[in-house]
Amino acid sequence: MVETLEQTIDDGQARGDSAGLICTGLSKSYWGISVLKDVDMTLRPGTVIGLIGENGAGKSTTSSIIAGIVEANGGSMTIDGVPYEPARPSDALKHGVALIHQEIRMVPELSVAENIFIGRLPRRRGVIDRNRINDEAKEYLELVGSQTDPRRPVAGLSIAAQQEIEIARALSREPKYIIFDEPSASLGQSETQHVFAQIAALRQRGVGIVYISHRLEEIKEVADTIVCLRDGALVGNWPASEITKDEMVKAMVGRDFVFAHRAPQAATGEIALSVKGLSKAGVFAGIDFDVRRGEIFGFAGLVGAGRTEVVRTIAGADQADAGEISVRGEVVHIKNPRSGIDAGIAMVPEDRKGQGLNLDRTGAENITLPWEKKLSSAGIITKKKVTATANKLRDFLDIRGRLDIPVGSLSGGNQQKVLLAKWLVNEPKVLILDEPTRGVDVGAKMTIYETIRALAETGVGVIVVSSELEEVLGLSHRVLVMSGGLQRAILDRADATPEVVMALALSNVPKESPLESPIDGEAEYQTPMRTQEN
Amino acid sequence: MAIVDRNVTPPRPDATPAHGAVAPPSVTSDNTGRFRRTMSQIPGPLIGLIVIFVALSFLSEYFLTPRNLLNILSQVSAVGVMSVGALLIILLGGIDLSVGSVLALSSMSMAAMYKMAGWPFEVALLAGLVVGALVGLINGILTAYGKLQPFIATLATMSAAAGLALFITNGNPITGFPDWFIAVTATSVLGLPIEGVILVAIFAIAAFWLKFRPSGRALYAIGGNEEVARLSGLPVRRAKILVYTIAGLLAAIAGLLVTSRLDSAQPTAGAADLLNVIAVVVIGGASLSGGSGSLLGTFVGLLIIGVLNNGMSLLNVSANLQPVVIGAVIAAAVLTDRKSSRRHT
Questions:
Q1: Using one digit for the tens of pLDDT, what is the confidence trace for A115-141?
Q2: Which of the residues B3, B8, B19 would you substitute to probe the A interface, choosing the one with the greatest number of A C-beta atoms within 10 Å?
Q3: A176 with A93: CB under 8 angstroms?
Q4: Are A167 and A144 in contact (CB under 8 A)?
Q5: Which residues of A395-409 are buried (b: 16+ CB within 10 A; e: fewer)?
Q6: E-only strand ranges, A20-84
Q7: Which residues contact A298 (CB under 8 A, 6 or more apart)?
Q8: Most CB contacts within 10 A, which of A47, A388, B110, B340?
Q9: What angle do CA B170, B175, B180 make, to 5 degrees?
Q10: Is residue B259 a contact partner of residue B108, using CB atoms and an 8 Å limit?
Q11: pLDDT given for residue A54 in this prediction
Q12: Minimum distance, in Å, between the CA of residue A370 and any CA atom of chain B
């Protein structure tokens, strides 16, 4: 079936229809290593291509070539039949091609309008024409459905609001083609829906869109055509309506991806972690739950619901105002990350670059960082010891890539495995994983899931916080749903259907809460409790 | 001991190849790859030092005599001792502007307690060291707990320490110390000047700490990414306070060396040393943004400054022009270093 579909799409090209952005035989190699091999792609105006593939499959290279960030070694591109050879991003923008980066790049101290027009601020009598940029910025912001005041600084805006500004910025260039590079990686479900609405509007206006994402359901929802890359080569392309998620996964990894919804053994072990009445003024309140040994305990909720703040507090990264935490029946007083670690609580934080890994140091050094005292003898730690410890975990976690080079040069999936390895040097009693598979390819995801299950089976109490409903529901024995800084329910797996969980996650959020209206631009983590203290 | 870590980073492509395995640099061609790797193991500053050294050997007959070389070691001892502390702080991503003033203040305190308060010399000497460490401790507390930017915190203590040093005697020097104390900077052991031995010993101890002790290695982690270090359970604030205190103590030791050499405690001694100390660390390849640098590099940077100053004096270069040359060397060192360690993020 796959082949015939491919055939029909190729036919269009064969007919010599040159409308749109057409890439032919794009190739790129670095240092003699080919990262992109002979990739063809046809982007018609008013259509959306969903570009999928594992990390390192060549998605980013493809989009970088199209956006003029990287020059191809081979192949050609045309726009409406005219050769298109961007040497730099500004060339691409002149030709109407814009790239929206995975990571939002904003100058926090400048205003929203200034960020939108940065690099080409119009001047009047030698000074920036603020009225003009504010007016024009407002137009573009309205276009993306944002009510953010263009005059306010970007600092303090939620990630979702910043994402809208990023899109408004791209729109202000009046592009004919837009590439979205994983825009939803940092967004929750409702914010993602908002981005989709904008994409639909853009498509209506005849803009051609390439949408890159690891979240396959959403890519199926938004795209007309799915294009899959593997190891730098084109696997094929299919109409989005005719390919199932399983088929996509198969195309990406070349094998079947099984989420393994196996019936969970109800965890009956002794209590690994008990949290009673944990509260932090203005952030969350009244958090009460137990995690048993061998149990995987999920935290669901929207971005900004307070899940990350709760687990950070349990691990000692932040301080609680009230509440009691005990580990395996013993009350522990956790006043900083060290005392959390000493109590047997390990946390893999959500922000890999900012909080998890030191990208300039080697993988081995990162893995042993919390344990150097333990690993040293007579107060001396040797490179040999560091390497040996890291290598043991490399095998356990199937880390592909060297551990003696800066960890920043590994792929996202391998970085995440290194981060996980760091907390398994000394087996934790409680392991907290905050967004354990963010920006990670399907292959690495499976290894991470298997590792989480294997750890639980050895008697670790595991907490998983995830914005991907399928992930948190697929992994956990029980799920705690939060909204507005409050614990809404603890559900057994049988009761935790996506509908029920979403309904709870959206429940009782006051209208004026920043959670419901991220466009208003309050920081997500600012005082969601303020409005509901009674 | 390791050379500057940044120099051994293999070049890497913009995009990660399939499955994230990064190409070892030797894939292009085995021989050139190996050659390049061997070359990149040699720190850039060392090449610079060798060039300067060879050039001066030809330009001046006197330069390559043992006496002159040992003289260089003595000349750089005070700045060298302080640059160890400066490197530790810069590794943490901090900066210490107060070193020169601390040198003067501890020297003056020691002299005042000995000559004016009549304390036994050994006690006064220890007290001088304590004063230096105390100022460092204040720097540490201001940055770690007061959350002041290190530049501001140490600017404040620099000003205060400089003022106190002048206040003690109203700006007058104090002279007349025990003979053995003067002898420290005028004696040789096995042909090496004692101050040179002290300098090398301090470098060696600190290098061992940085390389093998968990608390020393932690400085790289903290300077590289403080939040990662904190979440990994490292005592970030304690490390900051410790390092600033060590830097203060080392500045006090430098103060004693200067006092011994001059047989005089000068309230304005060390005023010109701050820029030299930072220059040494920067030429030695450390990054002011923290997390990278090594004591071997710093030692090479120290020798570059020492050899250059010495050579220029031998060649009768105007003393006013010498800082111009040093400035050029700082810029050149950082430019070449950045080129060799360029990395894509």
A1: 888 877 877 787 888 888 899 889 888
A2: B19
A3: no
A4: yes
A5: eebbbbbbbebbbbb
A6: 21-30, 33-43, 48-52, 74-79, 82-83
A7: A463, A464, A465, A466, A472, A473, A475, A476, A478, A479, A480, A496
A8: B110
A9: 145
A10: no
A11: 73
A12: 5
* CB B285 within 8 Å of CB B293: yes
Q: Are B254 and B101 in contact (CB under 8 A)?
A: no
Site of tokens 């005070």: B78
Q: Domain ranges in chain B?
A: 45-337
Query: pLDDT tens digit string along A272-308?
Result: 999 999 999 888 999 999 999 999 999 998 777 889 9
**Does residue B238 belong to the interface with chain A, where contact is any CB pair within 8 Å?**
no
| DSSP class of B2 | P
Angle, vertex CA B238, rays to CA B232 and CA B240, nearest 5: 95
Of residues B283 and B341, more confidence is placed in B283
Residue A465: partners with Cβ closer than 8 Å, 6 or more residues away? A298, A299, A307, A308, A311, A350, A432, A433, A434, A435, A472
Highest mean pLDDT among A4-8, A126-130, A146-150, A392-396: A392-396
How close B232 gets to chain A, by Cα (Å)? 5
Range B209-238 average pLDDT: 93
What residues of chain B lie within 8 A of the CB of A380, using their CB? 212-213
Confidence at residue A16, expressed as pLDDT on a 0 to 100 scale: 54
pLDDT for A59: 86
Asked if the C-beta of B33 comes within 8 angstroms of chain A's C-beta atoms, the answer is no
For residue B38, give how far its alpha carbon lies from the nearest alpha carbon of chain A (Å).
Answer: 16
Query: How far is B52 from B7, CA to CA, in rounded Å?
Result: 21
Residue ranges of alpha helices (H) inside A279-382 are: 307-315, 337-342, 363-368, 372-375
Chain B residues whose CB is inside 8 A of the A404 CB are none
Evaluate whether B148 touches B260 at the Cβ level (below 8 Å).
Answer: no
Q: Is B11 on the interface with A (CB under 8 A)?
A: yes
Chain A residues touching residue B228 (CB < 8 angstroms): 354-358, 369
Q: Name the DSSP class of B42.
A: S
According to DSSP, residue A63 is labeled: H
pLDDT at A353: 85
Contact assessment for residue A386 and residue A375, using Cβ atoms and an 8 Å cutoff: yes
CB contact under 8 A, A337 and B233: yes
pLDDT band at A528 (very low <50, low <70, confident <90, very high): very low
Q: How large is the angle between the packed helices B121-144 and B236-262, nearest 10 degrees?
A: 140
Q: Dihedral of CA A402/A408/A413/A416: which sign?
A: positive
CA distances B125 to A372, A422, B107, B129, Å, are 37, 46, 9, 7
Contact A31 B13 (CB under 8 A): yes
pLDDT value for A515 = 39
Question: In one letter, which amino acid is A498?
Answer: P
Note the pLDDT tens digit of each residue in B303-312.
Answer: 999 999 999 9
pLDDT higher than 60, residue A41: yes
- Picking from A60, A61, A370, the nearest residue to B233 by CB comes out as A370
pLDDT value, residue B344 = 35
Q: Which of residues 92-131 of B touch A (CB under 8 A)?
A: none
Interface predicted TM-score (ipTM) of this complex, two decimals:
0.76
Burial class (CB in 10 A: 0-12, 13-18, 19+), A221: middle
Helix axes B66-75, B194-212, angle to 10 degrees: 60
Q: Which residues of chain B from 268 to 327 reach within 8 Å of chain A, CB to CB?
A: 291-292
Q: From B16, which residue of chain A is nearest by alpha-carbon distance?
A: A56
Residues of B within 8 A of A409 (CB-CB) are 12, 16, 22
> What single-letter DSSP state applies at residue A351?
-
Overall average pLDDT of the A40-58 stretch:
87
As assigned by CATH, the class of the B45-337 domain is mainly alpha
Flag whether residue B48 sits within 8 Å of chain A, measured between CB atoms: no
Calculate the alpha carbon distances from A491 to A276, A476, B18, B24 in Å. 18, 10, 40, 49
